[in-house]
Amino acid sequence: MITVDSALAKLFTLVKPPEKETVSLREAAGRVLMDDAIATRDQPPFPASAMDGYAIAPSDPAPGDSFTIIGEAAAGHAFPGRIQSQEAVRIFTGAPLPEGARRVIIQEDVTREADRITLKKNLDPKAYIRPAGTDFRAGSRLTAPRRLTPQDVALLAAMNLATVPVARRPEVALISTGDELVMPGDTPGPDQIIASNTFGLAAMLDAEGARTRILPIAPDTPEDLAHLLEMAHGADLIVTIGGASVGDHDLVGQVAQDMGLDRAFYKIAMRPGKPLMAGRIGEALMIGLPGNPVSAMVCGTIFLRPLLRAMQGLPAVPMPRRQATLTSPLPPNGPREHYMRAQLLDAGIAAFERQDSALLTVLQQANALLIRPIADPARAAGETVDYIPL
Ligand SMILES: Nc1nc2c(c(=O)[nH]1)N[C@H]1C(S)=C(S)[C@@H](COP(=O)(O)OP(=O)(O)OC[C@H]3O[C@@H](n4cnc5c(N)ncnc54)[C@H](O)[C@@H]3O)O[C@H]1N2
Ligand code: MOO
């Protein structure tokens, strides 16, 4: 058995650099930017008014001063002339500041009669001018690699970039194995259950930027499994679920090896998830997940999520950990790193009583995986522990 850290490190060495593709801004959210994006213009490109009001020349006017309105500046419609000391231009938010103007008086602070304004008492002291380039300058960068958020997309649009270079989405083929499984919505026989973690994993992988294909369920024969693995051809990553352990019907390791799997490791000092295997098969990376629903989802969190990030050019690092205070005691841990389903509340973190790796209801209620190091002694309430948010 190898440790989680060394298994993940081995996995990262199998990752190929991502391929680049160009997508329109509409397709960019959630994708990983591969080259720095560089602004082609200043924003704002001109000094602009921050409010609706009147642009005037003096920077320090006094209450009672009056000005003659000589024109208007609206967003998209600059005032063409220059403003003199006794003049004002009616101006709206986002409009270019007229030449010679050094201050915008908000309309709440003036009284207006025909084409004259007079400044009221208690003038708002702010100038309400946004200098050119206050948001960003031509040449400003959004640095790669990064997964693009909606905020990033807004900034890229403001930079006048209509397309962006991103990592191609990894193609993942997901194969569930086992005669006992049927797809959700099918009619299970009396000795059958529904393939569940398959769908949980597909959702998890897609959320990490993958394009996940759920293949038909592989029955427990070497021929069927080999056929399914052939169907996965073309994927960047093949993920099998189940059949990874030592039972007579656990065929994945043998069949994959017969088909050329160059195995990097098998069995991890981890709970749940001990019978995990990984390697390269042809051009693809392959990971064999244990079948227990919680084991598969926990292994997905600990291995597949960081792996997909690395495959898209993001830093090859484990899932970030945080720390919290225990609110109830924990017994000593054994020889495997334990990822306990836990609930994190304002007061701290507590592991669920029931930790069987078949219990999806417990996983569904958990919002954190509380991490117990190998051979961790018993812990009391009030001690600090590591966790990974779910
Ligand atoms: N003698 C031993 N028995 C087992 C060991 C061991 O070391 N010695 N390891 C146990 C551990 S730990 C795990 S985890 C399981 C994993 O075994 P497999 O990967 O071979 O998984 P299966 O036997 O195929 O299935 C286990 C369990 O999960 C259900 N399953 C499988 N796929 C799905 C799916 N897609 N959706 C929902 N449920 C699924 C399956 O029906 C079984 O109930 O082995 C232990 N045994
Ligand atoms: O590792 Mo198994 O995944 O303990 O249930």
Structure, explained:
This protein is an alpha+beta fold and 390 residues long. The chain folds into four domains: 4-17 and 168-311, Molybdenum Cofactor Biosythetic Enzyme, Chain A; 24-43 and 135-167, Alpha-Beta Complex (Molybdopterin biosynthesis moea protein, domain 2); 48-130, Molybdopterin biosynthesis moeA protein, domain 3 (Beta Complex), CATH 2.170.190.11; 322-389, MoeA, C-terminal, domain IV (Beta-clip), CATH 2.40.340. It is built from seven helices and 28 strands. It has helices spanning 4-13, 150-158, 197-207, 222-231, 252-258, 293-311, 360-365; strands at residues 20-24, 32-33, 37-38, 48-49, 53-56, 66-73, 87-91, 103-106, 110-113, 116-119, 129-130, 141-142, 146-147, 163-167, 171-176, 181-182, 193-194, 211-214, 237-241, 262-266, 270-271, 277-281, 284-289, 322-325, 337-345, 348-351, 368-372, 384-389. Residues 271-274, 290, 292, 295, 357 line the site of molybdate ion.
* Average predicted confidence as pLDDT: 97
Number of strands: 28
Terminal Cα separation, in Å? 26 Å
Taken as a percent bin, the fraction of beta residues is 25-35%
Structural class: alpha+beta
What is the fold-level CATH name, i.e. the topology of the largest domain?
Molybdenum Cofactor Biosythetic Enzyme, Chain A
Class of the largest domain, according to the CATH hierarchy? Alpha Beta
How many structural domains does the protein architecture include? 4
Low-confidence stretches: none
Question: What gyration radius follows from the Cα positions, in whole Å?
Answer: 31 Å
Reported for the largest beta sheet, the result is: 6 strands, mixed
CATH homology superfamily name of the largest domain: MoaB/Mog-like domain
Query: Helical amount among residues, as a percent range?
Result: 10-25%
| Number of DSSP helical runs | 7
Q: Taking strands numbered 1, 2, ... along the chain, how are they ordered across the largest sheet?
A: 8-5-7-6-10-9
